[in-house]
Amino acid sequence: MTTLKAGDKAPEFNSVDQEGNAISLTDYKGKKLVVFFYPKANTPTCTVEACNLGDNYTTLQDAGYEILGVSADSQKRQQNFKNKFSFPYPLLADVDKSVIEAFGVWGPKKFMGREFDGIHRVTFVIDENGIIEKVIDKVKAKIHSEQILE
Which of 22-31, 83-92, 112-121, 133-142 has the lowest mean pLDDT? Predict the structure, then answer.
């Protein structure tokens, strides 16, 4: 797993959100962007993390940030997740893992003594020029928005 680091240029990406709308990095040119990667929609920790960002969306926007969630879930699963919790930001349905792999967050994981490949919970804070300002690889789901703002 070769994760990007602060100072790197964010990779250009093209994907679709939960409604099938095309979304790319260039859509956010001139804006600060938080891209958070999570393993699976509607799972306990992913839900806590996504809800924390949703609950603090206004504060994050006031600080100049747009938010984009990414997992390998289908559009339908992302749509259900977004609707269930009324997230005010788009969720990319990166089924082919092109965005996940471009950011280097796919790799070996351990869970309950089992090893497998999967999405690592990592957040990238990208500046107005497309440069990564911060990489949060030890995400604390309950206070994730605070981690972004510190």
Answer: 112-121
